[in-house]
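Hi R.,

Here's the chain you asked about this morning:
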Amino acid sequence: SLIYPYLCSYMNESKSHTIYISKLEDITSAAKQLLGIIGSCRIVLLKGDLGAGKTTLTQQIVTVLGHTGSTSSPTYSLVNEYESKNGPIYHMDLYRLNDLDEAYDIGIEDYLYSGNYCFIEWPELIMDLIKGETFVQMNIEQMHDGVRKVEIQIF
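And the predicted structure, written out as tokens:
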């Protein structure tokens, strides 16, 4: 079980929120709103179909968190690390992993124990590792006319 040196606090008492992103130009505003909702929670799971916008949204959140360099998809690297004024930010894509042993091989526990932001796409493989811990799950759904529905739940 993971032990964090802080409590995960969040902006509202509600543990469930929904926001809509109607166009790409709205993504910075959405990223700021999402960060306000998740508060101090550091493990953020992103779920959604291919092309739903998980990577694009995460890249914008990383920028809002203060990373000034370029960002890219971690599809092939599995983990991208970004520097920010508040420490490293980890963006993971676990889609290509076959089993939990491969997650251990990339050092998944080190990232999760770090206390730094961990944005994890395709997290199904590691759910047992965070069972009982506080985390945020974002379900992203592409709706009609390109609108993205982001459902945020805090567990």
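The two ends are 15 Å apart (CA to CA).

Let me know if you need anything else.
M.
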